[in-house]
Amino acid sequence: MNSVGSNCNELKQEYDACFNVWFSTQFLKGNHSEQMCAPLLKVYTECVKEAIKEQKIDMKEIEKNVLNTEEEKKKPTSQT
């Protein structure tokens, strides 16, 4: 799966690779320290935040809870 911003894809792949190594070699063996991939996660997170701003994605709209509400039954409006 690609990142929200195409310029973040390489950073995402690097973080995902680090996470997979950490999970299998550290976490599953009882070491729950997240420091191994923390620097990569920080850089990737900043890239994603910038991509969200550039694409004008409204995080409040994304995080809004609509399940089991009347709003869930509404048809989506066009965002063009």
Helix/strand/pairing category? mainly alpha
Q: What is the gyration radius calculated from CA atoms?
A: 17 Å
Report the major sheet: none
Distance between the termini: 25 Å
Order of helices and strands: HHH
Average of the residue pLDDT scores: 90
Count every helix, treating DSSP H or I runs of 4 or more residues as helices.
3
Sum up the overall morphology in one term.
extended
- Low-confidence parts: none
Beta strand count: 0
Structural write-up:
The structure is a single chain. By secondary structure, this protein is an all-alpha fold. Helices cover 49% and strands 0% of the residues.
Characteristic key phrases:
mainly alpha; 3 helices; 0% strand; TP53-regulated inhibitor of apoptosis 1-like; phosphatidic acid transfer activity; disulfide bond; MDM35_apoptosis
